[in-house]
Amino acid sequence: MPELPEVETTVRGLAPVLEGRRLARVGTRRADLRRAFPPDLRQRLTGARVTGLGRRAKYGLIATDRGDTMVFHLGMSGRWRIDPADLGPHDHLVLETEEGRALSLNDPRRFGSVDLVPTARLEEWPPFAALGPEPLGPGFTADYLLAALDGRAAPIKALLLDQRIVAGLGNIYVCEALHMAGIAPGRPAGRISRPRLERLVAAIRQVLLAAIEAGGSSLRDYARPSGELGYFSRQWRVYGREGESCHCGAPIRRRNDSGRSTFFCPRCQRL
DNA sequence: CCGACAACCTGACGGC
DNA sequence: TGCCGTCAGGTTGTCG
Question: Which residues of A are tagged catalytic?
Answer without folding.
Answer: 2-3, 58, 260
